[in-house]
Specification:
With 313 residues, this protein is α+β, with helices and mostly antiparallel strands. The chain has two domains: 4-137, PAS domain (Beta-Lactamase); 152-311, Alpha-Beta Plaits (2-Layer Sandwich). It has a five-stranded antiparallel β-sheet. Strands 7-8-6-11-12 form a five-stranded mixed β-sheet, with helices on both faces. It has a two-stranded antiparallel ribbon with strand order 9-10. Helices cover 43% and strands 23% of the residues. Helix 11 links the parallel strand 11 (273-279) and strand 12. It has helices spanning 9-16, 35-41, 45-48, 53-56, 62-75, 131-151, 162-179, 193-200, 202-219, 243-258, 287-303; strands spanning 20-25, 30-33, 79-81, 107-116, 119-129, 183-190, 225-230, 233-239, 262-264, 267-269, 273-279, 309-311. The longest helix is centred in the middle third of the chain and has 21 residues, at 131-151.
């Protein structure tokens, strides 16, 4: 390397730019190594130039990197690799907090052919530090996922809201139309819930709803979809479940809700539930029909005295 006073303006630019630049020949020997590469690798140019890049950095993804370089030598065209495709080429440290979720500097890499006449004699590789960009994009993606999750959740109970439940029911209905099999729907609500609100207040009523949702949520399967339809009414989608099996679940839910009063603010609040069940069957023309069937069974349970389970027939 020349002394700083002997560097040309172009050499000074290459040395001072805020991204890595190095050049390799057809034998993968390093011909140039700028200040960025030196500072982040801890290897001065004197140790690297004239030697194989793989001897100095055995941790490089040799197969991928070789293939990338050889394509540039053969085709004579630029190549690019985004951090989204491969997070980094060199394991350089970054200056982000460890909470950023990345272990090493995230890098975009450009591979530029250096021509002598029509022959590619070397490849110039640039390394751009895009750690901040990658972290911000990950944070945005995580935020979108959380917002989507919030959009699908009932604000009071934390379980699925009606929109999400009906979307899952529609998907299950379409699957059933195509492949057959069984699936069932349960609708249930808390008996005389208005009386609970009137007697104990809405704060207690909200607590009762949250506790009931938690109890039922712990009692159902992971593949089931449990949602709040609104007010004190809830719904449960049971894939691969016959009506007979669904009514066993309905009784389990009814007992889960009714066997233990809810203790809140020093008050023991007795709660019971009525449940209606319906199952996919020939002639069901839309998933909404199942909701109507289960709703009819639910109101039949209420007319029969509440705190019971009734199947639609």
């Amino acid at each position: 390397m020349n002394a700083p006073s002997e560097l040309s303006l172009s050499d000074l630019v290459i040395e001072r730019v805020g991204f890595g630049i190095f050049v390799v020949d057809r034998d993968f020997n390093v011909l140039m190594w700028n200040r960025f590469m030196q500072d982040h690798s801890g290897r001065p140019a004197a140790e690297v130039v004239g030697k194989s890049i793989f001897d100095n950095f055995p941790e490089l993804p040799r197969v991928w990197f070789t293939r990338k370089l050889e394509s540039v030598f053969q085709l004579g065209s630029f190549a690019f690799s985004s951090w989204e495709q491969r997070p980094y080429l060199f394991k350089f440290e970054h200056d982000r907090p460890i909470t950023g979720g990345v272990d090493f500097m995230q890098q975009d890499c450009t591979f530029m052919p250096l021509m002598r006449g029509r022959e590619v004699v070397a490849v110039c590789v640039t390394i751009s530090d895009v750690t901040n960009v990658s972290v911000m994009q990950r944070e945005r993606e995580e935020a979108v996922v959380k917002l989507q999750e919030y959009a699908n959740r009932d604000g009071l109970t934390g379980i699925a809201n009606r929109r999400f439940f009906e979307a899952r029911l529609r998907d299950e209905y379409l699957r059933w139309q195509r492949y057959g099999g069984d699936f069932s729907v349960l609708l249930f609500d808390l008996d005389h819930f208005k009386t609970i609100n009137d007697e104990f207040g809405h704060v207690v009523g909200d607590t009762v709803l949250r506790v009931m949702a938690q109890r039922v949520g712990e009692a159902v399967r992971a593949q089931d979809t449990f949602g709040r339809f609104g007010g004190e009414e809830f719904a449960l989608l049971l894939p691969c479940t016959t009506l007979q099996e669904a009514m066993v679940v309905a009784e389990k839910i009814r007992k889960t809700i009714g066997d233990t009063p809810v203790d809140v603010e020093g008050v023991s609040v007795p709660v019971t539930a009525s449940v209606g069940g319906a199952a996919a069957r020939a002639g069901v023309s839309a998933y909404e029909v199942l909701i109507n069937d289960a709703d009819a069974a639910l109101y039949s349970a209420k007319r029969q005295g509440r705190n019971r389970s009734v199947a639609f027939t």
